[in-house]
Design brief:
This protein is mainly α and 164 residues long. It has one domain. The protein has helices at 2-27, 29-41, 59-89, 95-101, 103-127, 139-156. Helix 1 (2-27) packs antiparallel against helix 3, helix 1 (2-27) packs antiparallel against helix 6 (139-156) and helix 3 runs antiparallel to helix 5. The longest helix is centred in the middle third of the chain and has 31 residues, at 59-89.
């Protein structure tokens, strides 16, 4: 039972994290929007950067990208929150039932992985070369986030024993 409670608690912790990122992005829109603007405009990458043709300089696209991030974070929070409820409801059920209840949490963890790995590492880090910026580089934070998500995903998917 302890392992099941740990899986539920970790799911809730990540749901809270994703919820707070959405909350912060909405309540401090300008600060966090500035990050997206600078990454997409590539204005703090190396000056002789041959890939600057990728830069996006249209404000409506910065806002669109920012809203995609917020929506991805909200989807993550919602799926993880719902997943935690489903896990809680199945906590005393047979292992097969508890395992089926994991699907919402798996979906939430996958959504979060796409936000912080694909969005920040692949798109921001490699396409927009965020790694070249000393000021607007969110790769270290994104790494911590998606590694926590992967750790919980691995732990969550460990087989559960039958209840005695």
């Amino acid at each position: 039972m302890t392992t099941r409670y740990a899986k539920i608690a970790m799911t809730l912790a990540l749901a809270a994290f994703a919820f707070l990122t959405v909350f912060n992005n909405l309540t401090d829109y300008r600060s966090n929007f500035n990050f997206v603007q600078h990454v997409l405009s590539m204005d703090t990458t190396f000056p002789d950067n041959a890939a600057r043709y990728r830069a996006i300089e249209r404000p409506w696209m910065w806002h669109g990208a920012y809203w995609l991030i917020i929506l991805g974070e909200a989807l993550t929070a919602g799926l993880l929150g719902y997943g935690a409820v489903k896990l809680w409801q199945a906590r005393q059920a047979e292992a097969e039932v508890f395992s089926r209840a994991k699907r919402w949490t798996v979906a939430g963890l996958t959504a979060g992985f796409f936000v912080w790995f694909f969005g920040f590492m692949v798109v921001g880090g490699e396409w927009f070369l965020m790694w070249q910026s000393e000021i607007w580089n969110g790769q270290d934070a994104a790494f911590r986030f998606y590694m926590a998500i992967l750790g919980v995903l691995i732990f969550l998917n460990q087989p559960d024993a039958e209840m005695k």
